[in-house]
Amino acid sequence: MKRWLSVVLSMSLVFSAFFLVSDTQKVTVEAAGNLNKVNFTSDIVYQIVVDRFVDGNTSNNPSGSLFSSGCTNLRKYCGGDWQGIINKINDGYLTEMGVTAIWISQPVENVFAVMNDADGSTSYHGYWARDFKKTNPFFGTLSDFQRLVDAAHAKGIKVIIDFAPNHTSPASETNPSYMENGRLYDNGTLIGGYTNDTNSYFHHNGGTTFSNLEDGIYRNLFDLADFNHQNQFIDKYLKDAIKLWLDMGIDGIRMDAVKHMPFGWQKSFMDEVYDYRPVFTFGEWFLSENEVDSNNHFFANESGMSLLDFRFGQKLRQVLRNNSDDWYGFNQMIQDTASAYDEVIDQVTFIDNHDMDRFMADEGDPRKVDIALAVLLTSRGVPNIYYGTEQYMTGNGDPNNRKMMTSFNKNTRAYQVIQKLSSLRRSNPALSYGDTEQRWINSDVYIYERQFGKDVVLVAVNRSLSKSYSITGLFTALPSGTYTDQLGALLDGNTIQVGSNGAVNAFNLGPGEVGVWTYSAAESVPIIGHIGPMMGQVGHKLTIDGEGFGTNVGTVKFGNTVASVVSWSNNQITVTVPNIPAGKYNITVQTSGGQVSAAYDNFEVLTNDQVSVRFVVNNANTNWGENVYLVGNVHELGNWNTSKAIGPLFNQVIYSYPTWYVDVSVPEGKTIEFKFIKKDGSGNVIWESGSNHVYTTPTSTTGTVNVNWQY
Ligand code: NOJ
Ligand code: NOJ
Ligand code: CA
Ligand code: CA
């Protein structure tokens, strides 16, 4: 069962992508180093606060009140930079841990101003941009950035940049000399600032109270100068800026504060990315403990972007860190998210980050970190590990959770857990693609199984550090046989015996024990594991990963339409989106021998290049419980299907009731017809009377259409 695992480990990372596969020979689905930019499901992401990792070049450090020598003031720059990351890539710290992707702080130039607060806060975190087309000089030059990308790629590591296009920097409406007044530069040329903003580059609606979605989008997040994405200059500027970074060869984008930007503009941004150089993109939509938000699910399913999986992260913290829930709650979250997210395997999971208390609590037991990492790395989703977790770094709240990296010890148990499970993630597709099934549960013990075709991973976890449990009556999909723990007993895992009916012999699960048992075998039938990206246009290329496709070229269909195949191997197919009408499609793979896979649902074909248009309707008076929606004659406006109408529209910040508005991603340069409707809580629909509104959308810029409700 493990014959191919050792092959993979000893193989050169870079060459493994070209390894030939036959039906009888089992090779990894996603070997590290193939740098697949649209499928991260077999990766392990490592999140680096660049300023806090390694100072590889002291000559680029700021001086004076921007800098804290020895990082004694955690709100100052501490010297970390891209050269420091390059050093850690080259000395093997990241690759030996099994890291296959890094997520780094926003690389763009940030404010040089120091805040006039108690600590003299600075932009060390990268979220206070001033010029999205220049680098943060304290992290390095553009050529340093290029060297970072090249060094990472040479070791099979993908590079994800943080990108924060919601805002520039802290600004005050009334005091132009507060910080840098949110000023924006275009590769060195001043564009504008927050006060006297005659071009409307920014919103001027005060700070959000976080009371509802609209309020959070169109008012400032804290005191951050909030971009008006409908401004034609800003729209183009931000889309041009991301292309500059895409041209540097980045492999992914982590989009900051997606809950605080218009959905429509973000969808048009994603279309731009997928049309240019497609990369895996995931947004940050913060959810508190136990918070469930249907807008969050809608965003993950319809924006073209994945999300950080806060439901997963918060729940695992409750179970393993805060003791405010147990495995029943965790299992419920696993089931609920599997149905809430169309592609749950594309959401980015984590146990902590720079905005929460570090998982390792001050009085915590490092064993809990090890257990949490084991669960994270064997669960569905793209796992992200916050720098220093493997060194059991502590720190509650920001900035104590962002201390300088304390050590680079390759022998911590956490480091070894990551190492072991990283190879398993790359070698057993059940971890990338599989469903999750609960097999045995009580409040302390969770035994779950991931399965994809014949590939199976069974994981048993005991969170109690004092109690043992006798595990009887456990069933598994593992074929009969003896299975040794894939963690090599790092967390005390047993060997288990499985009978012919899947019954596992009784065994003891000791305090804090984690066992991982696996089986893998070649598929004789095609199964699709992943498709990326899940949104695109006619002519875009898609990557289909899975098993059992066979070595001879077969057929890929979008609905009933055959796509042209660009490349075909047993585990990976590249196709071109065929010339089909915009809409959602099921994709199937048929082998040359005629066997057809199960459908992979929900691929969205857009009408054309997208632009963000603000639709405004005046005098739309409603009864209590009614809301206004928008529907029209293109896929992006629901194709006249009122259950797919856009909305509910907003009516409080940019315009006020009885005027309603919404920013929508629509096809460019197209004459479209639309109407507004009123819907009540039970779904009853009232149509506007009169003829359809007609509007020709702009080409590669934003637009606004403003009409009166037709009574
Ligand atoms: C969320 C980021 O993760 C956080 O650290 C930052 O301060 C805000 N967005 C604003 O950019
Ligand atoms: C994962 C589901 O398991 C699969 O059935 C579905 O086709 C894809 N997501 C796409 O929605
Ligand atoms: Ca430095
Ligand atoms: Ca905003």
TrEMBL record:
Its EC number is 2.4.1.19. Its cofactor is Ca(2+). Residues 605-711 form the CBM20 domain. PROSITE patterns: CBM20. It comes from the Bacteria. CDD domains: AmyAc_AmyMalt_CGTase_like, IPT_CGTD. It catalyses: Cyclizes part of a (1->4)-alpha-D-glucan chain by formation of a (1->4)-alpha-D-glucosidic bond. Keywords: Calcium, Disulfide bond, Hydrolase, Metal-binding, Signal. InterPro entries: A-amylase_C, Alpha_amylase, Carb-bd-like_fold, CBM20, GH, GH13_cat_dom, Glyco_hydro_b, Ig-like_fold. GO terms for molecular function: cyclomaltodextrin glucanotransferase activity; hydrolase activity; metal ion binding. Residues 1-19 form the signal peptide. It is an enzyme of class 2 (transferase). PANTHER family: ALPHA-AMYLASE 1 (PTHR10357:SF215), ALPHA-AMYLASE FAMILY MEMBER (PTHR10357). Belongs to the glycosyl hydrolase 13 family. This is Cyclomaltodextrin glucanotransferase. It comes from Anoxybacteroides rupiense. The lineage of its organism: Bacteria, Bacillati, Bacillota, Bacilli, Bacillales.
